[in-house]
Amino acid sequence: MDVRVGDVLVMKKQHPCGEKQWLVLRTGADFRLRCMGCGHEVMQPRHKIEKNIRCIQRKEEPKT
């Protein structure tokens, strides 16, 4: 799965604050994510995050 730093992940389950969107801060074997609602940061293994992703929202890069 192609997940990059700066992407926003929409998850299947919501965070206790009620938000489903998470900002990707770090990728690799683990992901560091920040909740877009309350700002809580978590670090989880890649396989655990990838199975819970509903969709990836990516900002389009300007083409030169």
Helix content: under 10%
Q: Low-confidence parts lasting 5 or more residues at pLDDT below 50?
A: none
What's the end-to-end separation, in Å? 26 Å
Mean pLDDT: 92
User: Oligomer, anyone?
Assistant: single chain
Query: What is the structural class?
Result: mainly beta
Give an overview in words:
The mean pLDDT is 92. A hairpin with a 3-residue loop joins strand 2 and strand 3. The protein is globular, with a radius of gyration of 12 Å. A five-stranded antiparallel beta sheet has the order 4-3-2-1-5. It has 64 residues and is mostly beta strands.
Structural key phrases:
1 helix, 64 residues
Produce the secondary structure layout:
Elements (H helix, E strand, L loop, with lengths): L7 E4 L9 E6 L3 E6 L5 E5 H5 L2 E5 L7
Antiparallel strand pairs: 1-2, 1-5, 2-3, 3-4
Quick summary:
This protein is mainly β.
